Amino acid sequence: MRAAEPPILRDIVFIGGGHSHAVALRMWAMRPVPGARLTLICTDTETPYSGMLPGFIAGHYQCEDIHIDVRRLAEFAGARYYRDEVVGIDRAERRVLCRDRPPVAYDLLSINIGSTPRLAQVAGAEAHAVPVKPIRQFGERWRALLERVRQHAGPTTVAVVGAGAGGVELALAMHHRLRRELQALGRDPDEVAVHLFSAGADILPTHNRAVRRAFEGVLAQRGIAVHRDAEVVEVAPGLLKTRRGATLAADEIVWVTQAGGATWLAGTGLALDAAGFIRVADTLQTETDPRIFATGDCAAMIGRPLEKAGVFAVRMGPVLAENLRRAVLDRPLKAYQPQRRWLALISTGDRHAIVSRGAFFARGDWVWRWKDWIDRRFMVRFSDLPGMDEMQGKAKPVADAIPLEAAEQTQALSALAMRCGGCGAKVGASVLSRALARLQPIQRDDVLIGLADPDDAAVLRVPPGKAVVQTVDFFRAFIDDPWVFGRIAANHALGDVFAMGAEAQSATAIATVPPGLESKVEDTLFQMMSGAVSVLNAAGCALVGGHTGEGRELALGFAVNGLMDESLAGVMTKGGLRPGDALILTKPIGTGTLLAAHARLAAKGRWIDAALASMQVCNRAAAACLMAHGARACTDLTGFGLLGHLVEMTKPSGVDAELELDALPLLEGARETAAAGILSSLQPANVRLRRAVRNQEAALNHPVYPLLFDPQTAGGLLAGVPADQAEACLAELRRLDYSHAARIGRVLAQGEALEPIFLVL
Question: Cα–Cα distance between 515 and 512 in angstroms, integer?
């Protein structure tokens, strides 16, 4: 037996992927505190760098150039990444409340969620104006506007409400890009008109006179109309109205003013300023709760109002990282000291910019190149991350131990000690009972004795005329989110039952959880099992019991019972393929290579998002659809990959099969990671089945060929459907949200060749 890994002692949770958190995560990775676990909760996996947004709008940058991949950054920092929307904080229980998942426990909490335009303060603005934040939604609307301008001839009027640096820069960027688009189409660039609305007499009110005059000249030269003392008080479809009664008809109204804190902050009990921002001390701790920190635009420093500028958020990052270390080690915190004057490099739409710092002013193309260099250098810190092997030599963990209470010290020592085997490796009864008590599995009439009963086994009724279908699956965690992992593990286990055309009746779980403080073990177990139960409940499957033990890694599996007609009417088996059947695959492939790439920081976060989403799609409705369209043969794709499972079907069916490589549905990024040679550790074993391919030599160089052997987790269903039913079946599958369902080949009569599979290239 080996000693366990150091246990988790404290949880530090980050809400939001803003600039401060990005900097703090990277710095924490270089100097972690053993026993402190980080969790990042974000709505979006790609968070934009606001300093480059105008350049993106103007067409100088691609979308990827201006976004930080926070899932990849979290993996680099050793942090768990939860993609969800935070809706509140339970400070009494120290839990973060999320929209779609169970509450997330914290010991220390940091909030960096930016600001939210307060459109509700202006009649009609919420319905008819486009806020610049959140930037993701604005980006989608901007792309739609670009396409609309390209496709429809005629004048386009854009109104930008807000004449601070953000509004001025955005107006110039939009004007520059739209004119270039029209010129490229051979149309009159003067079809575009941009209007800028300022509530006060001046634009750029926080900048010096020379800067204001320079931008007034640029705006006039570009023909952008500036409306002064023109506070917008009402917005209607295609129309805005100012306090003085002036109106403007506009095709797009962009809102870059009157920002405030997120609405859910009001329910936290934290002290907020008049605009709804969190009041913080110079330590970045909230005025109300020293366990909670806040940075960036969502924070308001007590006694030192700061402009909502990215420079402050970035410079808060190192102080935040250090103070979180000190807080978890129970040391005095350091003070953040914002600069009195800061450098602002404001672009003019083209590759030209103006410097503003206190009373200083300068302008030129060289300023834009300087800004571009600064911005790109900042972004490189998050795109060029050291690999895991390199990090082992660079990271220098803090040597000091986290202070613990007496009861925690005993639990921590126990977790570090040599662990027993046998029943001595079970999770303690109190931890287990508390975690299970919070679960809410569905109740079924045919479960006579189940999870709610104290007995050691479940008792089920088999209805008359039914036969029992049994299967089991188990694997270790491949993602640091126990709730998502639980959902995928349950989906994976249910797949065998649905692939045979059965309904799921009950599931018994077997789980392994790393030892540690009781509260941490309980929370991990609850998160994982609540994710699993959410899937089991949706499938009509009752969780009736299980076994939980200690182990070095988190793992979960299920023994699932299903029911089907004892006459086997409608059963789908691997031996049911018939010549002429169309081969239909309900979900895309590529999970093996993508998860391998994720572990090496070689996958984009959005690729992993899509893969995890696919793994959480249940096969139940797909199986019913396949059966309704005459399928007699079906299997779920799992560890042996597409080719391995197809061979398992052709042999008992006595048929051959033809696969169209270009028709295979692939998860985004799978082609790229496979081409880079990043493959699952099970791939070499699966590749041995290449002997089943008749024309493997010709197929070796096809980019999709390696993915035939890619092991799938919670993959889709592969079925043979009568050819005359195939198109109707695919249409119904897509209506059921199996959007990647595809016809990937056909079943052939068995030929004389020993190899049953022929690949169409």
Answer: 9
3-state secondary structure of 579: coil
Long-range contacts of 228-231 (CB under 8 A, 24+ apart): 228/198, 228/200, 228/201, 228/202, 228/203, 229/198, 229/199, 229/200, 229/201, 230/197, 230/198, 230/199, 231/197, 231/199
The model's pLDDT over 227-236, given as tens digits with 9 standing for 90+, comes to 999 999 999 9
Nearest alpha carbon to residue 108 among 261, 323, 287, 281: 323
- Helix and strand tally (H, E) in the chain? 22, 37
Closest CA to 402 of 247, 554, 516: 516
Could you give the residue numbers annotated as active site?
A: 423
Domain count within the chain: 4
Residues 489 and 538 in one domain: yes
What tokens does 416 get?
């570090």
739 and 632 housed in the same domain: yes
Domain annotation covers residue 577: no
CATH of the domain at 682: 3.90.650.10
d(CA 657, CA 646): 8
Indicate whether 538 and 617 sit together in one domain. Answer: no
**Structure-token match 């052709």, residue found:** 650
User: Which of 8, 33, 94, 106 is CA-nearest to residue 518?
Assistant: 8
Which pair of tokens denotes residue 632?
């007699």
Asked if residues 341 and 330 have their Cβ atoms less than 8 Å apart, the reply is: no
The CATH number of whichever domain residue 470 belongs to comes to 3.30.1330.10
530 and 629 housed in the same domain: no
Render pLDDT for 454-508 as a digit per residue (tens, 0 to 9). 888 999 999 999 999 999 999 999 999 999 999 999 999 999 999 999 999 999 9
Q: Tell me, what's the pLDDT at 421?
A: 67
Cα dihedral 100, 101, 102, 103 sign: negative
H/E segment holding residue 71:
helix 70-77
Q: Is residue 574 one of the residues assigned to a domain? A: no
- Decide: 113 and 16 in contact? Cβ < 8 Å: yes
Residue 573 is assigned to a structural domain of this protein: no
The last residue of a domain, from among 503, 535, 565: 565
Query: Can you tell me the mean pLDDT for 112-137?
Result: 89
* Rounded (5°) CA angle 177-178-180: 65
DSSP β-ladder status, 36-42 and 80-83? parallel
**Among 218, 242, 258, where does a domain finish?**
258
Same domain, yes or no, for 632 and 554? Answer: no
Residue among 60, 48, 47 nearest 372 (CA): 60
Q: What count of residues does the chain have? A: 761
Q: What is the CATH number of the domain that holds 29?
A: 3.50.50.60
- Confirm whether 469 is domain-assigned: yes
The residues that bridge with 447 in the sheet, in sequence order, are 460
Q: Count how many Cα atoms sit within 13 Å of the Cα of residue 153 in the half-sphere of its side chain.
A: 4
CA 194, CA 172: separation in Å to the nearest integer?
8
Same domain, 253 and 273: no
Task: Give the contacts of 625 (CB within 8 A, at least 6 positions apart).
Answer: 729, 732, 733, 736
Question: Tokens 């694997």 appear where?
Answer: 475
Give the tens place of pLDDT for each residue, 583-593.
Answer: 999 999 999 99
Q: Report the chain's terminal Cα–Cα distance, integer Å.
A: 51
Are 141 and 229 part of one and the same domain? Answer: yes
Question: Which residues span the domain enclosing 65?
Answer: 10-115+261-342+361-390
pLDDT-derived band of residue 2, with 50, 70 and 90 as boundaries?
A: very low
Strands 239-242 and 232-236 come out as antiparallel
CA dist., res. 106 & res. 369, Å (int): 43
Rounded CA gap, 691 and 649, in Å? 16
pLDDT tens column, 264-316: 999 999 999 999 999 999 999 999 999 999 999 999 999 988 888 888 999 99
Q: Are residues 315 and 431 in the same domain?
A: no
CB 428 within 8 A of CB 522: no
